[in-house]
Amino acid sequence: MDNTTAIEAFAALSQATRLETFRLLVRHEPAGLPAGEIARLLDVPHNTMSTHLGVLARAGLVVSQRHSRSVIYRANLERVRETVNFLVRDCCAGHPDLCEPLLQDLRPCNPSTEDAPS
């Protein structure tokens, strides 16, 4: 990821409705949600939601797929991973132990097999 791509992702998330939309889609992974349902859940007019989803899609943060008459939107978790990696790529100037609190905070999202219950 380069600076321009990262800036596009951050810019897309820098508006309240788009940030709420993205977080909603993350909660509904992997199934995703139809655009109308996103608009309903966030109480946003359909045409406004369409614009917000377009901004998120152009930034690569959401992907869509047509299913019959509906368009299902999903969070692009790979882009999230790339963005987080971009932010911490040079973590703590070569002292990864200083980044351990950040890594600990991310573990509940992705528990390792050793953390999983037996």
UniProtKB/TrEMBL annotation:
Pfam families: HTH_20. SUPFAM superfamilies: Winged helix' DNA-binding domain (SSF46785). SMART domains: HTH_ARSR. This is DNA-binding transcriptional regulator, ArsR family. Residues 1-95 form the HTH arsR-type domain. Keywords: DNA-binding, Transcription, Transcription regulation. Gene3D superfamilies: Winged helix-like DNA-binding domain superfamily/Winged helix DNA-binding domain (1.10.10.10). The keyword Transcription regulation applies. The keyword Transcription applies. GO terms for molecular function: DNA binding; DNA-binding transcription factor activity.
